[in-house]
Amino acid sequence: MPKRKNSLLLFSKLPEAGLVKTRLTTLKDGMFDPEVASVLYHCMFFDVVEICMAALAKLEAKSDEDTYELVISVAPKSNLEKMERLFSDAGTWPRDITFIADEGASFDEHYNDAFAQTWRSGADCILSMGCDMPALTEDDVIRGFDALHELCEIDGGGIVLAPDQEMGVSIIGWTKATVFDHTGVFYNQDGLTVLPAYIQKARALSLPAIWLPPVADVDTMADLMHNVTLVEALNYCEPLRARTAPYRTQRALEQMGITDIRVAPNDLMDPRGNIDK
């Protein structure tokens, strides 16, 4: 019997100053130089890749019926060789990586093209995510594929998705039997955000969907402050169970001097005078 091929698709960018995480920089409403933001993205990217590789190894160990590949998609095509060099210059990785270049006139089209190329390569399931999620865990990846395998047993398939912290989606995937795409989801001109856009598309097609736990990404300064606390906690917690932690991101944050997040006291809580006598 042929084995089921599972693809983990990372939708990525080269860590180039001024072209990644610009909302963290003085080019927009952030506080960092573009070079600093690109280094931070580079660290998050490599942490996500290593966490994904560790999860795929565990998935392979528990099933003889499945194979797993890691696919990294980048644009434009001229950056493909640069991305391959970025990883080869970093040294040896635990598993092979397939690199592809996605094309299109919009974010939706680029994402659709990356999926289409991965289906053509023989994938039976695709789980996809961005590379700016330092709080991603091995369990998030494993749960995603376990959910996809549930959907493989349903005629017509279905989707899996994990929300981010701001009405978007951090993980999305579906089975080969699922008639679905990303068209009309990102940067919706009617103001509909990504999470409800995916749900509305699935509802219109009567597709089943499996909810995955939220995974925070990093776009804005507020996102970053939230993730600083998550990264610190994960680096403390994950090693206890021999799991990969986002150590590169933590080291970068330490070098940036962002390690201790505090908020101003406020009196906006509900009054407790009738409770705490």
Number of strands: 7
The class by helix and strand makeup works out as alpha/beta
Helix content: 25-40%
Main sheet, how many strands, which sense, barrel?
7 strands, mixed
Number of helices: 7
- What is the rounded distance between the termini? 69 Å
Low-confidence stretches: none
Walk across the major sheet and give the strand order.
Answer: 3-2-1-4-6-5-7
- Silhouette: globular
Average pLDDT works out at 94
Rounded to the nearest angstrom, the radius of gyration is 20 Å
What is the string of helix and strand elements?
Answer: EHEHEHEHEEHEHH
Strand content: 15-25%
What can you see in these coordinates?
The protein is α/β, with parallel strands linked by helices and 277 residues long. It is 38% helix and 16% strand. The chain has seven helices and seven strands, in the order βαβαβαβαββαβαα. The protein has helices spanning 34-61, 80-89, 107-120, 138-151, 194-204, 221-237, 247-256, and strands at residues 4-11, 66-74, 97-101, 125-130, 159-163, 169-175, 209-211. Strand 1, helix 1 (34-61) and strand 2 form a beta-alpha-beta unit.
